[in-house]
Amino acid sequence: MAHVLVIDVGSSSVRAAICDGSARICRETAEPYAFTVAADGTAEVDARKLRASVEGCVDRILANAPPIEAVAVATFVGNLLGVDAENQPVTPVFTYADTRPSADVEALRTEVDGARLYQATGCPLHTAYHPARLRWYARNGRIMPATWLDFGTYLYRAWFGREIPCSSSVASWSGLLDRASRSWSAEWLNILGLTPDYLPPVVGSRHAEMGLMPAHAQRWPALRDAPFFPAIGDGAAAHVGSGAISPRSTSLTVGTTAALRQMRVAETPPCPVPKGLWAYRIDETRELIGGATSEGGNAHAWARAHLRLDDEPLVFGEPFAHGLTVLPMFAGERSPGYRPDATATLHGLRLSTTPRDIVQALYESIALRLAQIHDALGGSDALYAGGGALSASPAWAQMFADAMQTPVHLMGDEATMRGAAMLALTARGLGSLASLAPSASRIFEPRPEVAEVYRAAKERQIELYRRLYS
């Protein structure tokens, strides 16, 4: 049976796994890490340290490994790294959560036709994307990189010792890729004073690299003859791994952050992007329309760290009986309003409010935020859900079903790795996405009797947002 090595560079951990020919995980290893954050909006990570974590995971997973048919990589996207001519990092890895370019977002709004470029690239002006980050770095950076890369391409260039292109999937998350031509936007490069040489070439999902540097071929003999497929966005992998593979099928992912995505055939000319959403590539023929929030499991992690909760499973009361309204934007806002200056807000505290009330309100508030994205997508018949944070809390899965009045099919917490394996296996002609898709472990049906309660709570949340960020 064929086996695939999958590397998943997430926002809070690095994982490596061996998946079999059915895209099931046979064994895996992981190493946690955290972004370096600061009150000024910093959210970055040291490229060398993150690379060492990745390589350590690969070392461990390949011990006594079976023959490897292919290597697949998924990374958190919206990341940007500057390197010199020798592929050595000269900047940290700037992440999607870094909000320091907020002023540059506002400046660019006055200089460019933001609405037109939004449709052309599928990405609005926001700190999560590269245009504002590159403008910010031009003002504040000390060393001009020879090339700007994503972290996955940096890894491959280190391992192969040559120029390696990036996938259209990763490139589409940058805000610099033209949707129609699937090449870097000449207009954005001109605005930013860059040439295409500052960015890697863009290739399709079936492109593969072989021929590791001698040191890495000796270190990883199981990978000596394996094709390495270009790194893809973790959101694209998670959507495929959720089993949402038919046209207009919708996935819900709740990990460190959260997202709703709907897969569509990539049209020519590209279809309009609904207000408040984005359009990213899976591959040459398929794209995702959807929205992501900067909050998800990170809100639960914050609550565990600061509210002195015990380790017992959380038991929640009646929806919104606590009387709290929450904007859970701990790391700024992405969809649907894209306010990088937004912060988390807790409204309605009373002397009777308990820490568990606050946690319940946080969970509910994230479900309400995703419900706004669901509305913008036009709804769906079912949500194919995954992500470690969601799988760990069935009560949260029920909240999402109630908030969107849509069945939630829980598909497991390994969607990203499974999706990356599925795409690699199909690229090798070893199956189809339909034959490799998982089955639901549990289905949460929406409760009609609480629909009005959730609708009213969503309106209160929207009104609080309007009052703060009109």
UniProtKB/TrEMBL annotation:
Report if keyword Hydrolase is assigned: no
**Which GO terms fall under molecular function for this chain's record?**
kinase activity; phosphotransferase activity, alcohol group as acceptor
Note the Gene3D superfamilies from the entry. Answer: 3.30.420.40
InterPro entries per UniProt: ATPase_NBD, Carb_kinase_FGGY, Carb_kinase_FGGY_CS, FGGY_C, FGGY_Carb_Kinase, FGGY_N
Q: To which protein family does this belong?
A: Belongs to the FGGY kinase family.
Q: Name one GO biological process term.
A: carbohydrate metabolic process
Q: Where do the Carbohydrate kinase FGGY N-terminal domain residues begin and end? A: 4-241
Q: What is this protein called?
A: Carbohydrate kinase
One Pfam family of this chain: FGGY_N
Instruction: Name the keywords, alphabetized.
Output: Kinase, Transferase
Q: List residues of the Carbohydrate kinase FGGY C-terminal domain.
A: 318-427
Q: Does the keyword Lipid metabolism apply?
A: no
